[in-house]
Design goal:
With about 260 residues, the chain is α/β, with parallel strands linked by helices. It is about 35% helix and about 20% strand. It folds into 2 domains: about 180 residues, HAD superfamily/HAD-like (Rossmann fold); about 70 residues, Alpha-Beta Plaits, CATH 3.30.70. It is an enzyme of class 3 (hydrolase).
């Protein structure tokens, strides 16, 4: 890894503010906001083929204790998916799911009313791609992912179908890591960051957001606007962040260092 890319580019004055607890009068406590796929877990061949490692689960539990609960997951996955995938230290805390459409705080959920739109689109997608088993359809509470990781040569076909459905149903197409996602407009991960930082437990803290994908760029921007630090995983979003990590294990070590 290039040592120049591994160092934070934020001013020293900001780095000094990022502390795990109130160690002196001027210090502001840290708040940790984390993407899921590609950040807490390696990207899987299919959405279900992921799991948080025991070491990561232990580090996240310690972070939750050290930060007095000022830790949150911000993901494009549905809340239902995340409840199944996250360790107890995070599953019962603060989760912004579906790119901010769903917000769960200690089990209390705020979300718009669900419709059958994405159920119906999942059915249509299954029919459309039935002769292409390498296309994986991921139905979400407020979205639909068309994954082509298993057959990269089908990228254009996946994109064309997603764009046609977006035009028909007034949706937007969000490009991710070998996936095209259909979702409603009106919210993104930047909105999720702002909503989380408005919660009482996060008041007065310095946000640090860690993410790897294009959908995390609005979260980086919101975090930096709030005086915090944006950390990218890999190269895709490095130009939008203050610091770059190279792996999920690098994320775990960085979290451990932040709360030490």
């Amino acid at each position: 890894m290039d040592p120049k890319r591994s160092r934070s580019r934020v001013p020293d004055s900001l780095v000094h503010l990022i502390v795990p607890a109130e160690t002196h009068q001027e210090a502001r406590p840290l708040a940790l906001l984390l993407d899921f796929d590609g950040t807490l877990v390696e990207i899987g061949d299919t959405p279900e083929a992921v799991a948080i490692s025991p070491a990561m689960a232990d580090t996240l539990a310690e972070a939750s204790r050290t930060l007095s609960g000022r830790i949150a997951v911000v993901s494009g996955r549905s809340l239902e998916q995340l409840h199944h995938l996250l360790p107890p230290a995070l599953a019962g805390g603060v989760i912004a799911a579906s790119h901010g459409q769903e917000l769960s705080v200690d089990g209390a959920v705020q979300a718009p009313r669900r419709t059958r739109l994405f159920v119906d689109l999942a059915f249509e997608a299954a029919l459309h791609f039935e002769d292409f088993p390498g296309i994986v359809i991921e139905e979400k509470s407020f979205g639909l992912g068309v994954h082509y990781r298993l057959m990269p040569q089908l990228r254009d076909r996946a994109e064309q179908w997603a764009m046609a459905q977006a035009a028909s149903h007034g949706l937007i197409v969000q490009q991710g890591d070998m996936v095209f996602e259909l979702r409603p407009g009106g919210s993104d991960k930047g909105d999720a960051v702002r909503a989380i930082m408005a919660l009482d437990r996060f008041a007065g803290s310095v946000p640090v957001f860690i993410g790897d994908d294009l959908t995390d760029i609005p979260a980086f921007e919101a975090t930096r606007a709030l005086g915090g630090q944006a950390i990218s995983v890999g190269s895709r979003t490095a130009d939008h962040s203050d610091e770059r990590l190279d792996s999920v294990e690098g994320v775990r070590r960085r979290i451990a260092a932040l709360i030490a």
